[in-house]
Amino acid sequence: LESIPSPQRSPLLASVLDVKGSIQLEQGQPDGAVRTWERSSQIYEELGDRAKANRSTINQAQALQQLGFYRRSIALLTPVVQVFASQPDSLDKSVALRSLGDGLQFVGELETARKYLEESLEIAQRLPSPEAIANTQLSLGNLWSALGKTTEALQFYQQAASNTLLSPSKRIQAQVNQLSLLVKTSEI
């Protein structure tokens, strides 16, 4: 990076930080990923690249959720979702809505969470983005389970688990959640 002229170094540094944050999260270091994405978001803001700053903020919020800091995640995502409200459909918009819905679910704001998750799913379906659809179906399964709506939860878990574009770990999570719900309701 040292040999790259300063005006070009910042976008490159921010991109490197984005990759580093992803690696940290994959390696089970969400706290490091939060700090890394916070830094990349600041650089993108300084460069005036709002889209990439939003993406880094979404990543940071998701890492905060892995750490159990749902309220901090919600605080980060709320202004991003407000910005997206006036913008056309995009994958980032769908992911931000889903992440906000997930955070709201964990703090007990289930009806508000449902609104954001359903909007996320609608956008993912319009794009269409099969991976985003499956991830949101998993989130909706979790939400319906929390609301005590077994039939709806099982339907979403089944849809998510059958999507081959969902990561293996998420597909297993959907299957385990489905099985747990069946055991809990004694429907096996």
Question: Which structural class fits the helix and strand makeup?
Answer: mainly alpha
Q: Please report the distance between the alpha carbons of the first and last residues.
A: 58 Å
Q: What gyration radius follows from the Cα positions, in whole Å?
A: 18 Å
How many DSSP-defined strands?
0
The portion of residues forming beta strands comes to: under 5%
Q: Largest sheet at a glance?
A: none
* Assembly of the depicted chains: single chain
Uncertain spans, ≥5 residues at pLDDT below 50? none
Provide a count of the helices: 9
Mean pLDDT: 92
**Helix coverage percent:** over 70%
Write the element-wise H/E pattern from the N-terminal end onward: HHHHHHHHH
Cα shape: globular
Keywords:
mainly alpha; single chain; 9 helices; 188 residues
Structure description:
By secondary structure, the protein is mostly helical. It is 80% helix and 0% strand. It is built from 9 helices and no strands. The radius of gyration is 18 Å and the shape is globular. The chain starts with 5 loop residues before the first helix and ends with a helix. 41% of the residues are buried.
